[in-house]
Amino acid sequence: MGDRKLFGGGRSRLDYILLGAMVALVLLGALCIMSAVNSISWANPVVRTHCIALPVGAFAFFIGWSFNYQIYDEQWKALYMFILLLLVGVLLFGSYQRGSRSWFVLPFFSMQPSEICRVCTILVAAAFLDRRGRRIREVTSVFWLCLLLLPIFGLIMMQPDFSSVVVTLPALLVLLYCTGVNVFYLGLIALFAGVAGFFTISWTYIYLHPDTLSYPLVQVFHGLSHNGWYIAGFATAVIVLGYVAWWLFRQFRIYLPSAYFVLATLMVLAGLFGGIFVEHQMKPHQRKRVEAFLAPRSDPQGAGYNILQAQIAMGAGGIMGKGLFSGTQSRLGFVPERHTDFILAVVGEELGLWGTLCVLGLYFLILWRIIGVAYASGDRYGYLVCAGIFGMFFTYMLINYGMLIGIVPVAGIPLPFISYGGSNLVASLWALGVVQSVYARRLRA
After folding, report:
1. Which residue has the higher pLDDT, 200 or 296?
2. Are 112 and 419 in contact (CB under 8 A)?
3. What is the rounded distance in angstroms from the CA atom of residue 167 to the CA atom of residue 394?
4. CB 3.0-4.6 Å disulfide test: which of 182, 196, 250, 352 passes with 320?
């Protein structure tokens, strides 16, 4: 009986469309990675690591599919403790690379715990929200979820690993939306992220262009990042404006709950402090990424080099591309990080516009099937898990394609199944295995 509960019983069938799209992306990714590193001296370690990650990822997919996904619902507290132990462990024993302590370096390969923790966080959040039932529309549901996830995000930011937060937060917003949370509360979260992002980007621009500090208003604005008196003054102004907004709404007989104005005020202040925290945690290379996003052509040999060279490579491929292992921009080393962050530049140069559209189409096929599995799931938890995983993959896709056309900053985020990255590949395959587990048990009550 215990084995049946663990492995699920019922109809253990696969969604072959989802499986086919996944396998096609993995195979295409392996070819693009080998092409991207074929001309560099350290190609062998990259290929070897990827060859290790492929069978491990296949095993993770099998585990995700075979195990009954409801076990994560029942054991969500143990899963939560597992996340915290992994993140604390990497802070204590992890290797310091590229300005962050995010990796466990093992004898034959390295592991990035935040990739596994991202999927686990979705499973934990889905279990928590599933238990809220009809109380989900109450503000306390969002509050307790934020309190539950705060240690996870805090530990990730201590590494620091901003890219993990960038991918995980939108996935959780999709999850919240699908649970039926009041849209106003989602707007509050978006307000917090927008305010924090505004301050972070603005202060980074000032940091990279110190000549702007000659303007008194810019000096005051920059002082919000470190001067206690300026921070206190800003907080007072926000509170007063919140009260004035409430009073004006009352005068026009728009009777919104007073709590809405209080929460909006608190979110603006929280956004300020979030921006201050990020400002003091950002590394110089992360500031350069923001500069490249704001004005890539202002420094074509410096901050904007990566994105401009990637776009040149994409354009050089034309409609049909130059053919696999025939790209010049990537193989001659003009495109940096071509096997990880900018793997799409290799796809665009060697397979052309049709190749990038093919990759995009396969991703849309995966997203479409995840939606289908969510609607066919046998319980609410399965539906929520699929919603969170959908949000995760959609964010990955949006950021990677957005980086190439310049609508989002370069964030150091791989494209699952296509980019090189063993931890990301294993975590992504496990996530789709969990979706397949929901599909296999979709008729269960």
Report:
1. 200
2. no
3. 9
4. 352
Whole-angstrom distance, CA of residue 374 vs CA of residue 384 = 7
pLDDT greater at residue 219 or residue 256: 219
Structural domain includes residue 382? yes
Q: Give the total number of structural domains in the chain.
A: 1
Angle of CA points 235, 239, 242, to nearest 5°: 140
Looking at the domain assignment, is residue 445 inside a domain?
no
Q: Report d(CA 405, CA 323) in Å as an integer.
A: 22
**227-249: pLDDT as tens digits:** 889 999 999 999 999 999 999 98
The C-alpha atoms of residue 320 and residue 180 are separated, in whole angstroms, by 45
Q: Is the whole model's pTM more than 0.90, yes or no?
A: no
At residue 38, the pLDDT reads: 74
pLDDT at site 7: 43
Please say whether the beta carbons of 424 and 416 come within 8 A: yes
- Closest-CA residue to 305 (of 324, 316, 292): 292
The whole-angstrom separation of Cα 400 and Cα 94 is: 27
Asked if the model's pLDDT at residue 19 lies above 90, the reply is yes
Q: What is the pLDDT of residues 52-101, one digit of tens each?
A: 889 999 999 999 998 899 999 999 999 999 999 999 998 888 787 766 77
* Structural contact between residues 246 and 252, judged by C-beta atoms closer than 8 angstroms: no
Residue 134 in any domain: the answer is yes
The pLDDT value recorded for residue 314 is 72
Strand partners, 95: 103
> Do 22 and 373 touch, CB atoms closer than 8 A?
no
Go through the chain and tell me how many residues it has. 445
Domain around 300: 2-440
CB count within 10 Å of CB 215 equals 11
Q: Which residues of 129-149 are buried (b: 16+ CB within 10 A; e: fewer)?
A: bbebeeebeebebbeebeeeb
In angstroms, rounded to a whole number, what is the distance separating the alpha carbons of residues 47 and 271? 42
pLDDT of residue 39: 63
Please state, in angstroms and rounded to a whole number, the distance separating the CA atoms of residues 241 and 222. Answer: 21
Are 246 and 258 contacting, i.e. CB atoms less than 8 angstroms apart? yes
Interacting residues of 426 by C-beta distance below 8 A, sequence separation 6+: 53, 56, 57, 60, 115, 116
